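Fig. S4 source data, part A: sequence.
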Amino acid sequence: MKIYCAGPIRGDTKFQKSYFSIIKIVEFLGHEALTELSSNFEKSKNSLSIYERDITWLKNAHKLIAEVSGPSTGVGYEIAYALHEIQIPVLALYSTKSNKISAMLLDNTSPLLTIQSYENSEDMKFKIKEFI
């Protein structure tokens, strides 16, 4: 299964290690992680190519898993695109150590959106496996 992995790259990177963990877990479970941080893809060099590549990946993804412990406009855009434009299931994961979760996520009633907190990487792995 192709799973788009979203996380902060230019936004709040305090929880970027958790984003890396999501990618590793998705790949460990035998799925294709669609993200520039996967070793399977080259990094794009400019904003236009990043946008075009990421939209193509989203359109080809079966699901989206996002690290949302810190604010990122890019991640917010990707989640909204997944929910409203292409209508694929989204798992939004946030650390119990974070207090910056957007109300736009927490109070979203979309049946395609699952929001889960995690304590550690094992807890995260369980929730990802359950979602997939």
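Fig. S4 source data, part B ends here. Residues 2-131 form a domain with the Rossmann fold fold (CATH 3.40.50.450).
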